Amino acid sequence: MFVNHEGGHYLEALKYVGKSITRIDAVEKVLGIAEYASDIELPGMLYAKLLLSPYAHAKIISINYEKALRVPGVVSVAVGDDFPFRVGLYVNDRNILARKKVRWVGEPVAAVVAEDLEAAEEAVELIEVEYEPLPAVLDVREALKPGAPLVHEELGEYAHSPAFNPIAGTNIANRFTLKKGNIVEGFNKSEVVVENEFYMPQVSHVQMETHVCIGHYMADGNIKIWTSAQSPFTVRYILSHSIGVPLHRISVYVPYVGGGFGGKAGINFEPLVVLLSKKAGYRPVKLELTREEHFLAAPLRQGFYAKIKTGVTKDGKIMAEKIFYAFDAGAYADYGVNVARAAGYSCTGPYYVPNIEAESLAVYTNHQWGTAFRGFGHFEFLWAIERQMEIVASKLGIDPVEFRLKNALLPGLTTATGEVLREDAGRVDQCIEAVAKELRWGELTPTNDPKKVRAKGIAALWKAPAMPPNAASSAIIKFNEDGTVLLSVGVTEIGQGTVTSLAQIAAEELGVPIEKIRVVPFRHTDLTPYSWQTVASRNLFMEGRAVIRAARDAKEQILEIASQVLRAPKDDLIIKDEKVWVKGRPEWSLHLKDIVAGYVYPNGNTIGGPIIGRGYFVGTRLSYLDPETGQGYPALKWTFGAQGVEIELDLETGEVKVLKLVSAFDVGKAINPMLVIGQIIGGGIQSLSLGMWEQYVYDDKGRMLNPNLTDYKIARAGDIPEEIIPIIIENPQSDGPYGARGVAELSMLSVPAAIANAIFHATGVNINDLPLTYENIWKALNKKR
Amino acid sequence: MSRRKIRFKINGVEKTVEVEPNKTLLWLIREELKLKGTKKACERGDCGLCTVLLNGEPVKSCLVLAVEVDGSDILTVEGLAKNGELAPIQRAFIEHGATQCGFCTPAFLIVGHWLINRNPNPSREEVVEAINGLLCRCTGYKPIIDAILEAAKYMRRT
Ligand code: FES
Ligand code: FES
């Protein structure tokens, strides 16, 4: 028996939910016929090429594109002043093309539109731009100093959402503050105080599919967009807001997305192609970034600096924490302001801390602009917090697993924002224990090679969706005349597999075999039900609830009709195996297919009509946070987890090999265990890759030195640990669909800290700056000697 | 630029096309023949997602000039399934969850297919070595490795 989200009981075993069915999009994908934005070609389509800024910060004195216009095939050239609009998800700070000045090396300055790509490429080289270089600010701490060059002089004029706090006359795009308890008293009661600084560089999502979009501003004033975006409705909304075209005149189509990881959330190059299309005589314009352009011009994960002071009692209770986080948001923070906010309200990690003072800043610099990246804010601050926990435990002489368990944030305790953790919240203690057990925590494996040591490390994690309180999801279930079903949802398929789980939920609820349910494979804002964004590991939870409601809405309508035909009260009817039955009277039943398009009596009289079920979901009692204290209810749900590694470290070279990676998450209920495991393994390796190798390397002028996949290394098949162990823990959350919580981002939050903690155990050396390249480890080991 | 006429076989079908000498095989496949299953993610040999079989051997099609394939035999992902029946490698990818966003999938299928046909009993190390030139950002590779090993088993059974 299983308690469902409304407190009812399932008396029968679940047929689809909890089963590892294969992905519903897998056949298309293995046949090579799945459609991606780059595969789309339209009649009369033109191609765009961007001219990127060579300076990190410079005034644009003049742009001359006469020669470019003369290249055969060139239709139009656009510069920033052609498009006097700004866009932004939360802060309206971003230009379509640079205006007046450039703010990072790679900022698009001009765009050529031509009949073919070759002509556009040739022409873009011929554009002459005169710049006057300005002093650039290339470090987040420098950017905060008084007198630092300002990246946005007009910050005070930008419109922004009320949840954010940009400070005019500074480089601070958002300042989040949080106060809980009494910090002075907390430190007074502490017997040991530990303070450390941590750092993380900017990194790229490296989605295998770069940003691709096509815009068609049509002569009748309607706009069509085809794009590799995570959030078609947000693209539509922000574009509408920015250029003043009402929503019903904008259609956004999203096919399969070749990897998103947050980088294709919000709005990116869509406004540019739409405006280029208008300028080029209302013909469709396609922009497809090359890998190099993707590295230089597409948004990335912000860099991060942290300073944490923790006060503890001798027996290992955390009493107080003073936290400072500064995110290197880069040139624009339209989405990035929320990264600092999310890190701010989750700032402690999964631990109970009674007294907190925290400040989390999104800071403009002349680096590339930052955006969402899988687990944003959390991947960054958990690197700092989970290293800090390790250092504090060692100062106290307490085992780090025991220390974490002692301070674990359990149901009934309050979070940093003063929220009492709900009684059916996930259990971080169980996750930590499961990982420790699987790692055989405390047992040491000797090596034969005296130059090499083995060690283990653990790090815990938590995250809630970083979304506004009114973020909504919805679903439509349409019955076809033959009793098959079309399920339509707004969550995009970016690889995470949510739609497969939603089909399972629909099949379970409707009593229809899953083979007879098709999820509409594309998103089109004209047809698809609304979904705020495909981000934040929120969609299985929110779309899941919406699908359940849509199914129940459809069933109500079906029972209404069936009750008349079967001459039995609605509450005596059940829907099962594609039929409506009178309970206890299996001989009195109707086939769904005879009802779902209207029931026809033998004489032709018809009752009912086509069945369309609909459902929506928004978070319950979520609130804005107090602007001073950060107190309130930001979290739809908290997912908890822990990750651990066993490493082998070469003491001479600094080479570290992760031999075993263990991850445990309290997902509430695995709707599809194979998909959950797929997320856990994939996210775990992404995390390992980011932690060990990835970074934007800049020269002193702010130019990226490694904009290709040779010099910017990501994990390959030969880099993965021999043993990768995913552990699923299921403490159901009563308002989740069948008890489920999200896991996609969580899977990648804490591997870097676990590796660095293992290095610490092996050598006593603390590495507080990422990435953990051999070189950096070698340097750290030698500093000690 | 003067165009050159080339003849080749792709997925079992004879083709004759005229190409400019600076165009790549990747361009020929995606832009000229409109076979969109083969992907591009770097166009400089780093990612391997444009891999196809050229005369039975895997090549990164962004590094091969179209004119070089005159007289050759090419296999792309679209040629794996025969008469509507999935190849063993495709079935195994579905069953092992080896595709997520799917963007890298065609390349891994091609290399996996090549490997198990050449060596029906590959070791894990041999699988890793075969796919080490291909990038996937979603799956963490493990499901792909498992799928290729499983596909080899299917092959041995038939
Ligand atoms: S596109 Fe050919 S190797 Fe990347
Ligand atoms: S499945 Fe997305 S890149 Fe491999």
Can you put this structure into words, describing what you see?
The complex is a heterodimer of chains A (785) and B (158). With 785 residues, chain A is α+β, with helices and mostly antiparallel strands. Chain A folds into three domains: 26-34 and 470-618, 2-Layer Sandwich (Aldehyde Oxidoreductase, domain 4); 37-134 and 211-288, Aldehyde Oxidoreductase, domain 3, CATH 3.90.1170; 300-467 and 622-784, Aldehyde Oxidoreductase, domain 4 (2-Layer Sandwich). In chain A, the strands form ten sheets. In chain A, strands 5-9-3-16-13-14-15-26 form an eight-stranded mixed β-sheet, sandwiched between helices. In chain A, helix 10 (378-396) runs parallel beside helix 16 and helix 13 (498-510) packs parallel to helix 14 (539-566). The N and C termini of chain A lie far apart (60 Å). Mean pLDDT of chain A is 96; it is low at 1-11. Chain B has 158 residues and is α+β, with helices and mostly antiparallel strands. Chain B has two domains: 4-76, Roll (Ubiquitin-like (UB roll)); 88-157, Orthogonal Bundle (DNA polymerase, domain 1), CATH 1.10.150. Helix content of chain B is 34%, strand content 16%. Chain B has helices spanning 25-32, 88-95, 105-118, 124-131, 142-157; strands spanning 4-10, 13-19, 51-54, 57-60, 73-75. Chain B has a five-stranded mixed β-sheet with strand order 2-1-5-3-4, covered by helices on one side. The radius of gyration of chain B is 16 Å and the shape is globular. Classes of the chains: A alpha+beta (785), B alpha+beta (158).
